[in-house]
Amino acid sequence: xxxxxxxxxxxxxxxxxxxxxxxxxxxxxxxxxxxxxxxxxxxxxxxxxxxxxxxxxxxxxxxxxxxxxxxxxxxxxxxxxxxxxxxxxxxxxxxxxxxxxxxxxxxxxxxxxxxxxxxxxxxxxxxxxxxxxxxxxxxxxxxxxxxxxxxxxxxxxxxxxxxxxxxxxxxxxxxxxxxxxxxxxxxxxxxxxxxxxxxxxxxxxxxxxxxxxxxxxxxxxxxxxxxxxxxxxxxxxxxxxxxxxxxxxxxxxxxxxxxxxxxxxxxxxxxxxxxxxxxxxxxxxxxxxxxxxxxxxxxxxxxxxxxxxxxxxxxxxxxxxxxxxxxxxxxxxxxxxxxxxxxxxxxxxxxxxxxxxxxxxxxxxxxxxxxxxxxxxxxxxxxxxxxxxxxxxxxxxxxxxxxxxxxxxxxxxxxxxxxxxxxxxxxxxxxxxxxxxxxxxxxxxxxxxxxxxxxxxxxxxxxxxxxxxxxxxxxxxxxxxxxxxxxxxxxxxxxxxxxxxxxxxxxxxx
Length: 510
Prior knowledge:
It is elongated and about 105 Å long. Mean pLDDT is 81; it is low at 130-136 and 374-380. The strands form five sheets. A six-stranded antiparallel barrel has the order 3-4-7-6-5-8. Strands 13-23-17-14-16-15 form a six-stranded mixed sheet. The longest helix has 23 residues, at 260-282. The protein is an alpha+beta fold. Helix content is 15%, strand content 29%. It has two domains: 51-80 and 218-510; 84-207, Elongation Factor Tu (Ef-tu), domain 3, CATH 2.40.30.
């Protein structure tokens, strides 16, 4: 079934650059000719809020923190992996002398006893965190005397071991991208099409022997983002500030009265506050040469640089899932949850996560859970909300648990609002980890704990550009200009920092 008729969603902006061009009812128009009569009609003075609360801001206020910054650039580092594992490794031969050149794959026959020699080559390109690292990738960091486990992968590029026999061995030689092992147990047959993954899991030394001669230093990834300056303004002539209307205006922030310019000013502020959030969510970094930002100051030569927004950060450094719960009514889509859990296991394995979804994906997940167990809908664990189910529900969340993970689901108004992201169909929601991350702050010179998602705004002891507003002109206060007007200025300088983006998931339409 479908709607056979209905009023389409209005997208024509009601705000205009010219004051009052269409915001006052024309009493002399023929459609209002009753005003020429002596009888007083019933007039509704208050505006009807037919679109409810039109502001879409709240997402970043709910899941992020805000803190000052004093620089044009913010740099942070994130931890690398603790353990050493290599993937897509090539088996070369069983020669007693380890080769130091060549990458031609070899073969080997199965052996039931230990003591088998194996020579392997580790490709330079390894699955790793993105970012600038201080560690080279052209030297294997296995060390002689370490015990390793080696297994054939599910495919040549999967980087994941399959179900075949495990080779457990001791490293006997290492040079550059090559290493040699001698097996502790039997080994399976090896074909030249197979690729392997290897993990160091310990070591073995003789009594009275010396220790390793090589040390291992930690690696890290470095990331950066830059703030952008956002501006807005509203102006009105002195005469129009005294213009009284017959419509009692209201605004989302509680402003009311019969002065239309008050509504205009408040809506400009609300729209600007939404821009502050939208620009942090949708922002992208400039590629190549950006537009010259001299639209109102011809002498300027600065060009657009952009800023990395929420969606761009996840697409570049996080996880993107397409077609989650794509089958109608959640049929068979529980496997989508399991795929997400498997991916989270590969990353930080953060137990508590929040889902911010559009209407369609939210309903699809409801259908999935309803088919499994009605108990899911109320949720049994609300640890991120002080274990209070009431608190979670008051914030619009419902919770459920799958495997060892807790999920808290709510609708994201920005993705549902038809006049903003709801009018685009590519993004269905995001998974945001709860908690904090530990990173090294280049400015402070120390490790700090920060929410995974937070805003950095420009501020110092003498200036705060988090959300700055001021009035110029000769109307409504001290005169700062001979021009007969009141001009409101708004400014903010900020950027979004997404740390540990590998723990986020962006859900996109298939």
